[in-house]
Amino acid sequence: MLVEREPLPESNASPDPILQPVSSERGNMSHNDGYEFDWEDLGDIKTGRPNLGQETSVLSYRLLQFTFKDVLSKELGGERCNQLFIQAGRLAGQQFCRKLLDTTLPFEAFISALQKKLIELKIGVLRIEKADLANLDFTLTVSEDLDCSGLPIFGATVCDYDEGFLTGIFNEYLGREFSAKEIDCWATGDRTCRFRVHPA
Fold this sequence. Notes:
Blueprint: H1 45-48, H2 58-76, H3 78-100, H4 107-120, E1 125-132, E2 137-143, H5 160-174, E3 178-184, E4 193-199
Antiparallel strand pairs: 1-2, 2-4, 3-4
Helix pairs in contact: 2-3, 3-5
């Protein structure tokens, strides 16, 4: 037997905001319209992760990176995949430099601040092996690198993203186009990543 229920009274209250789609003033996070990175899109991590905090594991970072590489290389080819990782790293390096570093510092002070920030964020331990300031030619090493330290020996360098990241930082700091190329890598049998950075 069906029991007729009285209709619920109409409510003037706003819909529950938790059930509503979150809108962004920038409005560029659509899956179909493309996306342009903005530092603010990284969000308020402190508020969003009050218990887990701002750090994650190298395992989860590498899982993200290497599965991206797998899919992109199968879809676009290995060379194009590497180019895109370099391009993304460059964008990240430029934004990282703009937001977290003081580009008005002299070179030695800037590098010192960069070293501290990379350690603070557990990205790696940066050292300068060679700095030819007259020709803007540098050789850098990154130990305990987030991308590759501890990997199996692949017989090829794998830190494409790091190449772009360093390129972006030097572009932003020195105000001209640079190129960073990895010449030694954990994945080639070395125990540190080594990069040559020079004007493009």
